[in-house]
User: Fold this.
Amino acid sequence: MKIDAVTIFPDYFAPLQLSLLGKAQERGIVEFGIHDLRDFTTDNHHSVDDTPYGGGAGMVMKPEIWGAALDTLMTPQTDLIILTPAGRRFDQRMAESFAGSTHMVFACGRYEGIDARVGEYYASKNFRVHEVSIGDYVLGGGEVASLVMIEAITRLLPGVLGNPDSLVEESHATDGFLEYPNYTKPPTWREIPVPEILRSGNHAAIATWRSDEAAKRAHK
Ligand code: ADE
Assistant:
């Protein structure tokens, strides 16, 4: 999978080199391209934003610059993700669906967002455009939201996780249930024992206990 991100803060994407994502890149499972939006400005001040039509507080990112940047990246295979708190809510199902994509471009807006014509234009040219929010709160920009999505999506790619079974069992993967609580050694820590049943060796009973616990969490 190829993942491009366009941002005025390329440094935000440094964590892509770490941990699972760094290894996935080394193994050639995913390739990241981080692009500085200001490279596509043409004025001396490298300005990327301007005042909103209709008035109001804040600044809006200029469509010409976004168009110049995205034109260099978009292909018929691309899923263009525009991060905005007004977008469709990101969830595990959406992550699974994007895990089948071959090319994703993350457009990270700042300020009051990107001129609305940018998404409209690419959609009108039959590109796949998705406005996505990671939750009902307002971030300073789309960079952190992109990182959240990239991590959730790329860990689903074959070969990224050491043990692919963890994908099957984990939270949300089955029926939208949260995962059961997990324990490791020692058997008692600060006077709190591990539930006896988990040490019983009775696999059927353990499976039942786990699914009951997962169901309890789901109803909280
Ligand atoms: N940009 C600002 N807030 C955001 C959010 N909650 N999700 C995605 N992009 C954003």
Observations:
- Residues 203-218 form the longest helix (16 residues).
- Residues 83-85, 133-135, 137-139, 141-142, 145 surround adenine (CB under 6 Å).
- The chain is about 30% helix and 20% strand.
